[in-house]
Design goal:
With 492 residues, the protein is an all-beta fold. The chain is built from no helices and 37 strands.
Length: 492
């Protein structure tokens, strides 16, 4: 079995902690997939793209086994390598997966798994914290199958090159590993000034192109990213985009942006030329590089930069309530922003709009590389839903992962969650038309957080199961206790 690597940005930023779910959900629509996840480069398109619709009657039985603890466990990231996958997440108690022991120190620690294309465990490792709570929020992979993990840490961690310092209450980290999970380089950054909310600095998204690793996140106050202390843009939280050499993590450049409000980048992807696209949310008054703007609630922003890190354009996706961007993907046609928004409200992208009848609904927004709106679509029904991550197939189909609760209508299919919420994977056509959907879940709160592709016939998703809380609640509605880790698959 071979792996087809599509364009994607990697999930994270999501606060719910839960289970690892690797679900294979039948043929997803096209014979072949292209691209190198995380660096924005695709393979050449095939001579013909033959669409193959999913059979709506396909069931989703569990096949790989269950691994769990009574603590705060979650698989948050999945990226495709040449012939397998890397999964990253966090554990609170030690577990054994595929005969490999993942030991923790009792706090919330980082784990990583190297899987072959059939889901077998090749290697496993944990990164033990210095007593705080650590989480991997973003992950990317390069052409040599080296991968890069970013997140935030309350206590010092050691990715393999020595303990990384924490300045202030919380620091951001970037760690690079080879295909076997061995340390290549690592670094952390942060500032001494704590925010009014008590947190400090974080890294949420990472991508790589042309041997440059780009990291996006938010900081408060003066911060040294590696090239000397940088000043705050204003009195609020700043967003940043920092670039480092892929070979050794050496600092290249950084750009900060903000004002008096909160600016919080969540994901970043790169195109073939090395240009980058950043998606996040902002509240209050911020300057994204083209003058001050004010949000109507918590609104979504998208910024494009050229290969030298200079701004090209920016735009917003907004409503009268709150929105949250969760995923970002890219292909030759443009970029795709995934997330959810609260109703009752209408979400706007330029002249396009999407209405929520009064619940939390997932959305997918497509833009060209120059920022022009292409299409805006979502999921709807009597319940609520959210999209968390996406990957594009070679022929342009967008495959998304997320969760829903209650009754859902999508692509002519009506689904009803088995418990509080169910995980979902779904496909959109090149013009945003819903094509197919699959769900999985039990009596508890279940969901999919990340997605990858395998050999043109299956979708892999990672996520959680049996969480306490509700996807219909606030942005941090999930309990961080009593969750499990699963690995499941579905035969085609």
């Amino acid at each position: 079995m071979t792996v087809g690597r599509g364009y994607k940005a990697y999930p994270g930023g999501v606060r719910p902690l839960g289970l690892l779910l690797v679900a294979s959900c039948g043929r997803i629509g096209f014979d072949t997939f292209g691209g190198d996840a995380g660096n924005g480069e695709s393979g050449q398109p095939p001579d013909a793209c033959v669409p193959r619709m999913l059979d709506a009657s396909t069931s989703l039985p569990t096949a790989f086994g269950v691994y769990g603890t009574a603590g705060a466990d979650l698989a948050k990231q999945i990226v495709a390598t040449t012939d397998g996958f890397v999964v990253a997440g966090q554990l609170q108690s030690s577990v054994t997966i595929g005969g490999r022991v993942l030991a923790t120190a009792g706090s919330i620690d980082i784990f990583m798994l190297g899987l072959d294309a059939a889901g077998g465990v090749r290697w496993a490792r944990t990164i033990i914290s210095g007593g705080g709570s650590e989480t991997p929020i973003g992950m990317a992979v390069d052409d040599a199958d080296n991968f890069y993990v970013v997140g935030n840490m309350d206590g010092s961690i050691d990715c393999g090159g020595g303990p990384l310092p924490v300045v202030g209450l919380q620091a951001a980290y970037v760690c690079s590993f080879d295909v076997n999970g061995q340390h290549r380089w690592s670094r952390s950054f942060g500032g001494p000034v704590a925010s009014p909310g008590g947190s400090n600095d974080a890294a949420s998204g990472v991508t790589i192109a042309n041997d440059v690793v780009t990291v996006a996140g938010n900081v408060h106050g003066p911060v040294d990213f590696g090239g000397g202390m940088t000043a705050a843009s204003g009195t609020g939280f700043d967003g940043y985009v920092a670039a480092y050499r892929a070979s050794d993590g050496g600092f290249l450049r950084v750009r900060r942006f903000g004002l008096t409000g909160v600016t919080d980048p969540q994901r970043v992807v790169a195109d073939r030329s090395g240009g980058t696209y950043v998606v996040g949310w902002f509240g209050g008054s911020v300057d994204l590089g083209r003058g001050a703007i004010t949000s109507r609630g918590e609104d979504v922003f998208v910024i494009a930069y050229d290969a030298a890190g200079e701004p090209r354009w920016s735009t917003t996706i907004d409503s009268t309530t709150d929105e949250a961007p969760r995923g970002l993907a890219i292909d030759d046609a443009g970029i795709y922003v995934l997330g959810y928004f609260d109703g009752p409200s209408s979400l706007a992208l330029g002249t396009l709009s999407l209405t929520s009848p009064g619940h939390r609904d997932g959305f997918a927004a497509a833009l060209t590389h120059d920022g022009a709106p292409r299409w805006l679509a979502g999921i709807g029904g009597s319940g609520c839903g959210r999209f968390e991550d996406a990957v594009t197939a070679r022929c342009g189909e967008l495959v998304v992962a997320g969760a829903f609760a209650g009754s859902l209508q999508f692509a002519g299919t009506q689904l009803v969650s088995a418990g509080g919420s169910d995980g979902l994977v779904a496909g959109f056509d090149t013009d945003g038309t819903p094509r197919w959907i699959r769900s999985h879940g039990g009596i508890g709160e279940d969901g999919a957080v990340g997605v990858a592709l395998i050999d043109g016939t299956s979708v892999l998703s990672v996520g959680f199961r049996d969480a306490a809380g509700s996807i219909c609640g606030g942005l941090t509605a999930f309990s961080e206790r009593d969750l499990a880790i699963d690995i499941t698959t579905v035969p085609p």
